[in-house]
Specification:
By secondary structure, the protein is mostly helical. 45% of the residues lie in helices and 7% in strands. The chain starts with 7 loop residues before the first helix and ends in a 12-residue tail after the last helix. Bound molecules: zinc ion. The site of zinc ion has 8 residues, from helix 5.
Length: 294
């Protein structure tokens, strides 16, 4: 089956002309040529994963950045002709998950290179990432300056084809911390730095730890309730993730990746395997704050 491909010009035309049939003005024609060129130049950068090296030439060519930025509103506005493509861009995922945190549902599009600084890419499909509202609010000002601080691009990077994350569990501090997978991406490699920056900029260290601690609590409750051995309980959770991956192979590297590495870290912890089941008795996991407001 051949895939339907939407060309840049039809997206641009829908944004500029709306639902009307008419010719472009000279100004619009020149703008179309400029933005199509920028879109193609950016794609070359994407293919080589050198997003940071893209130079916005809007000002150089005398374009008003604000005007270019505002075209995005025409793509996004409900009931506009551009909205068709906005919806198609949001649906560019197999699993409907935010392509930044891989946890939330897609509700929005995020500009990989912020449109305020890169107005030439305000409606470029390669610069638009399907994401949740929470992620969309966090990163808007990040401009990668070197290869090392480029966040992960869901379409052009290949981190999600294998394990990219790992976790360390400490039973003493009751913490689970995440880091880039060192077997696949050795420390000091560009990839290691990029994954690390992605996690930092999008506050995913915090998100994944919060999710993992809740997952661990649920796991302990389940083991206790069903009177199961903790190791067996973890192993059956891992089995479930791999079962899921039979139907959608990438799931273990995308929305299930934090969960998979959490369980793997728990299996490695001798303390958790022998004492994990008593955690709920030792600790009060959920306590109201020790303060109040008058
Ligand atoms: Zn998200």
């Amino acid at each position: 089956m051949t895939k339907k491909t939407y060309e840049f010009d039809e997206v641009f035309s829908a944004c500029i002309k709306g639902k009307k049939e008419r010719k472009f003005t000279d100004h619009e024609e020149r703008l179309n040529n400029f933005l199509r060129g920028a879109h193609k130049v950016f794609k070359v950068h994407c293919n080589y994963q050198i997003y940071h090296a893209y130079k916005d030439e809007s000002a150089l060519h005398g374009w008003n950045g604000k005007e270019l930025e505002s075209i995005y509103e025409k793509l996004r506005r409900k009931k506009s002709a551009g909205r068709f493509y906005y919806t198609k861009l949001r649906e560019m995922t197999a699993d409907g998950k935010c392509q930044i945190c891989l946890y939330g549902s897609v509700e929005s599009l995020d500009h990989y290179l912020p449109k305020e600084s890169y107005p030439s890419l305000s409606i470029s499909a390669h610069n638009l990432i399907p994401c949740c509202l929470s992620c969309n609010g966090k990163k808007s000002t990040h401009k990668p300056k070197t290869a090392n601080d480029q966040t992960i691009h869901f379409k052009f990077d290949h981190y999600y084809d294998s394990n990219w994350l790992e976790a360390q569990y400490s039973h003493n501090s009751r913490r689970i911390t995440f880091s880039p997978n060192k077997s696949n991406y050795p420390e000091n490699s560009i990839d290691h730095k990029r994954i690390s920056e992605h996690l930092r900029i999008h506050e995913l260290y915090e998100l994944y730890e919060t999710l993992a601690l809740k997952e661990i609590r649920d796991l302990v409750i389940r083991a206790n309730k069903n009177n199961l051995n903790i190791k067996t309980t973890i192993e059956s959770e891992i089995e479930l993730i791999f079962e899921n991956a039979k139907y959608y192979p990438n799931s273990k590297f995308t929305f299930n990746q934090w969960k998979l590495v959490t369980f793997e870290a728990l299996l490695k912890s001798k303390d958790f395997i022998s004492n994990g089941k008593n955690m709920l008795n030792e600790d009060n996991f959920l306590q109201p704050p020790e303060y109040d407001f008058a």
